[in-house]
Specification:
Helix content: 40-55%
Bound molecules: ligand FNR
CATH topology: TIM Barrel
Shape: globular
Structural class: alpha/beta
Number of strands: 10
CATH class: Alpha Beta
Length: 380
């Protein structure tokens, strides 16, 4: 298959994965309005073409949280990636590290923290959810710190799980989910062989290690559902701020007032995100939310953005709207499902190439040169 964009990987992933997994990655909350807005609002932002600016070689490298990065891109936390490809978290982490960007390990990964970090020679980032089980939170933070992880991404837009109709229809959740997943898996023998269905691909490393026994996918929904904590506020997070000595990034900010609260809290960064349209359907796209947030807090902390980014052009658009860097979610999940580590590396090469083209033709030689002037009009 000829791969020329992340959309090709989406199609390749659709072919390779059992439907319950493809739709788990691809889908969003309720009617998927925000999911579509994320992509469409970015696409509608007109880049401002400039010519004869004697740009020469563009430099896409940057620095975030005192780390030198090959480009202002990181891999977002994506749960269950070890089910898209064999030891998927390790494969994605290797690809990111080889390409000089950070990989963020989700709380709900198949491979445990220790396994992933041992396979790469740069510290990965670690993502944590707000959970009722504070013992689990403290334990997992200690484990992350012990293996050398310093950047903590704290996801706050999941005080309750969002309703995803596609998951109910596809067999990921809902009645007879286990049986339906089993049947679909048998019908996809190449995938089942790859992820090692005879082993225990559905064990969740970070969770099982705490509990002393593997947590199966069937238990996962129940565990998560009973563990999200809607009663939590900023003050309840103080112990984590005190405990964690490295950069702390709050993920899931969509409003300037919350961004200001994050500054007051002492966060080092935020991720402007609606969880890829997977939580509250109907909220703003990240691209629309970002300019007001950048107005409120730019320069006070590092602003990352995600949701809807499918190309290097989208990366440049997010930077032009005020982000210092971005996270890729589905774009890399599709590539991982389609071709493992090689797929993610190819995707990152494509993103870098697309960024260079966009920067050259908008007259930006460095990342710092990208600004609201790179768009025909700032904002949408
Ligand atoms: C996610 N996301 C997510 N976020 C998080 O903080 N922890 C997690 O475990 C997950 N899991 C997860 C699984 C899948 C399949 C997807 C698609 C997303 C959200 C993710 O980090 C990111 O915010 C979005 O994916 C960004 O949107 P795009 O790039 O997918 O449009």
């Amino acid at each position: 298959m000829i791969i020329s964009s992340s959309l090709d990987y989406r199609e390749a992933a659709r072919r390779r994965l059992p439907p319950f997994l493809f739709h788990y990655i691809d889908g969003g909350a309720y009617a998927e309005v925000t999911l579509r807005r994320n992509v469409e609002d970015l696409a509608h932002l007109a880049l401002r073409q400039r010519v004869l600016k004697a740009i020469g070689e563009v430099d896409i490298s940057t620095r975030l949280f005192d780390q030198d990065l090959a480009m202002p891109v990181s891999l977002a936390p994506v749960g269950l990636t070890g089910m898209y490809a064999r030891r998927g978290e390790v494969q994605a982490a290797r690809a990111a590290t080889r390409k000089g960007i950070p990989f963020t390990l989700s709380t709900v990964s198949v491979c445990p923290i220790e396994e992933v970090q041992a396979q790469v020679d740069r510290p990965i980032w670690f993502q944590l959810y707000v959970l009722k089980d504070r013992g689990f939170m403290r334990n997992v933070l200690e484990r992350a710190w012990a293996v050398g992880i310093r950047t903590l991404v704290f996801t706050v837009d999941m005080p309750v799980p969002g309703a995803r109709y596609r998951d109910a229809h596809s067999g990921m959740s809902g009645p007879h989910a286990g049986l339906r997943r089993m049947i679909q898996s048998v019908l996809h023998p190449a995938w089942a062989f790859d992820v090692g269905l005879n082993g225990r691909p559905h064990d969740l490393g970070n969770i099982s290690a705490f509990r002393g026994q593997p947590t199966k996918l069937n238990d996962y929904v129940g565990w998560l559902g009973s563990n999200f904590d809607p009663s939590i506020g900023w003050a309840d997070l103080q112990w984590i701020r005190d405990f964690w000595q490295g950069p702390m990034v709050i993920k899931g900010i969509l409003d300037p007032d919350d961004a200001r609260d994050a500054v007051r809290f002492g966060a080092n960064g935020i991720v402007v995100s609606n969880h890829g349209g997977r939580q509250l359907d109907g909220v703003l796209s990240s691209a629309r939310a970002l300019p007001a947030i950048a107005d409120a807090v730019k320069g006070k902390l590092t602003i990352l953005a995600d949701s809807g980014i499918r190309s290097g052009l989208d990366v440049v658009r997010m930077l032009a709207l005020g982000a210092d860097g971005v996270m890729l979610g589905r774009a890399y999940a599709y590539a991982l499902a389609a071709e493992g580590q090689r797929g993610v590396e190819t995707l990152l090469d494509l993103i870098a190439k697309e960024m260079r083209v966009a920067m050259t033709l908008t007259g930006a030689r460095t990342i710092a040169d990208i600004s609201g002037d790179s768009l025909v009009q700032a904002g949408i």
